[in-house]
Amino acid sequence: MAGRGVLVTGGSSGLGEAMVRRFARAGDRVWFTYRSHPDAAARLVAEVAESGGKAEAFELDQGDAESHRRLLERVHGPVDVLVNNAAVGTKTVESCVDGPVELRDEAFLRINSVGPLWMIRALLPAMLERGYGKIVNVCSVGGAVATFPAFEVADGMSKAALAYLTRHLAAQLVHDPVHVFALCPGATHTPMLRASLLDALDERQLAELTGRLPGGRLLDPAELAELAWWLCEEPATLLHGAVLDASRGLGVHPGLVTGPEAGC
């Protein structure tokens, strides 16, 4: 299905930015959201346009009901593909919440799991009416697949909830023309991972961590964006409801970064 309407939340940097570029390159019209850094969002819109693509940026405070309502009023045209990518991590949550741990716990669940639920509730009825829809929930190998105790417990809980949402929704839609997937990346070179982990490491520690990862490297946002795009193509319907470990094996061997060799 060419020329789809694609909504990517959290699309102004990192994995979301790579997804915006990939869907636009395929000829889809892409709307994406950002919470801060409107200049970065504007640059991405301009770069997509220079490449012959179509993209628009909208501010969204994910998990805030009024902000969701404003976004959906401004997105003109059917949303055929929803990529729930916006999220906070163990360190980036601090930019959203200034207060005690209880507020951070609430923010993790509100932003990482309740926000995607609200997006799906708002957009799914029209997908069903049109007879076409793809939903990709971007989780994390941490929480959705494996356990990484160095990160905030509420962070992992929120990603586990998003994986459950994927399976539950897929079961409800098993006879309908809307397909749902969860994509669970491993250690990916994004601003979120840099803030949550990489920036605290010196050069030696970073080299040691990278060497322990599967393949001896961090994942590239572009390769995960390619996978997200493919999930929205017809052959991927066979994976309806799948919670996909996209970590090059870190999900089945988390001890590479949490075991004795990691000093934990």
Topology:
Layout: E1 5-8, H1 14-25, E2 29-34, H2 38-50, E3 54-59, H3 65-74, E4 81-84, H4 101-130, E5 133-138, H5 141-144, H6 153-172, E6 178-185, H7 191-196, H8 203-212, H9 221-231, E7 243-246, H10 255-258
Parallel strand pairs: 1-2, 1-4, 2-3, 4-5, 5-6, 6-7
Account of the protein in words:
This protein is an alpha/beta fold and 264 residues long. It has one domain: NAD(P)-binding Rossmann-like Domain (Rossmann fold). Helix content is 45%, strand content 14%. The chain contains ten helices and seven strands. The protein has helices spanning 14-25, 38-50, 65-74, 101-130, 141-144, 153-172, 191-196, 203-212, 221-231, 255-258, and strands at 5-8, 29-34, 54-59, 81-84, 133-138, 178-185, 243-246. The protein has a seven-stranded parallel sheet, sandwiched between helices. Strand 1 (5-8), helix 1 (14-25) and strand 2 form a beta-alpha-beta unit. Helix 1 packs across helix 9 and helix 4 (101-130) packs parallel to helix 6. The longest helix is centred in the middle third of the chain and has 30 residues, at 101-130. The radius of gyration is 18 Å and the shape is globular. The mean pLDDT is 92.
Features:
alpha/beta; Rossmann fold; seven-stranded parallel beta sheet; 10 helices
Q: What's the N-to-C terminus distance?
A: 48 Å
Major beta sheet, strand line-up: 3-2-1-4-5-6-7
Low-pLDDT segments = none
Rg for CA atoms: 18 Å
CATH fold descriptor: Rossmann fold
Element-level helix/strand string: EHEHEHEHEHHEHHHEH
Helix and strand composition category: alpha/beta
Output the CATH class name.
Alpha Beta
Largest sheet: 7 strands, parallel
Specify the number of helices: 10
Shape: globular
- Beta strand %: 5-15%
Estimate percent helicity.
40-55%
InterPro entries: NAD(P)-bd_dom_sf, SDR_DHRS6-like, SDR_fam
Protein name: SDR family oxidoreductase
GO molecular function: oxidoreductase activity
Organism: Amycolatopsis iheyensis
